Amino acid sequence: MIPAGRITSIWRYPVKSMLGERLDRAEIRELGLHADRTWAVRDVELDATTSAKRLPGLLWLNARYTQAPPPDAGPGHAPEVVITFPDGTEVSSSDAVVHQALSRYLDHEVELRPLPPIDRRDEYRTPRATKTDLRTIFGLEDGEPLPDLSMFPVRKLAQISRYATPVGSYVDAYPLHIVTEQSLAAMAALAPDSDFDVRRFRPTMVVDAPGASPHPEWDWCGGTLHAPDAELQPLIPTIRCVMPSHEQPELKQDREITRAIAAHSRRCLGAYGTITRAGRIAEGDVLQLDPPNRSTLGATAGSGAAKVKWAVMRAVSAAMPTGKRS
């Protein structure tokens, strides 16, 4: 093993797309950080979980647990949260008016929904996305090419086309999202007029990883990070949607954020991953890396599996409707 870096912050989001809270330490399990995103907003018309990609006003709402989440917090067990609106009004998830208050604030009919039990898979489903949907999600102008999603394994591509979030979680794709201070600094140097504040990117944890690489977390993909009491596996670079460019408290709207990431880092910043050994993580924890086997990864990239993935992606793109849903 070799030194990788040190955890400098840990973040939990009680409600998907609402403001996060910084923790000194936290339990981390197969489904992610304990009590992360146990609530989300559901679009009533679409009958699907939604986020600030479509409703950026969510980024101005603060959500906090009324007490420390119990050990069973998770699918089917969402602890009570209190949502604070920009004018200071507070509404509890246990209050029947919470749906009306959110709908009025967002000017869109929504409901606050707890994380469903894993066996209620239908509640995680989403209508099939259109190409217009993808342009909205990634903030693309007419004529700009759709994003390259080839970093996702075929199974994950199939999952995210069928479900709004992975079954058992309200995260977008993977339970772990790592961002390094070096990646943020590298992008800030390329777009000096923009503020690459970590809050824009909603990580699970931030790592200080000194070294020569501008994006250390990409170099870790395929390896294993060992914390003192947990093991983490970075898998693929995190492809960025339009959310980091949206305005939120103390951070102005800035489309150059996502333009710079698209132009200079293949539309990626950070790394998605999984948890291979549950345990606890804390600020200050030193991480050790079992490096990925690059020769194996290179062989895989040129294998028949990669060709199958590209065939699947072309078929999905060809079958995807071009316009808005009826």
From TrEMBL:
GO molecular-function term, one example from the UniProt record: pyridoxal phosphate binding
Q: Which Pfam families match?
A: MOSC, MOSC_N
Against SUPFAM superfamilies, the record matches this protein to: PK beta-barrel domain-like
- Tell me where in this chain the MOSC domain is found: 124-290
* Record's protein name: Molybdenum cofactor biosysynthesis protein
State the species of origin.
Mycolicibacterium sarraceniae
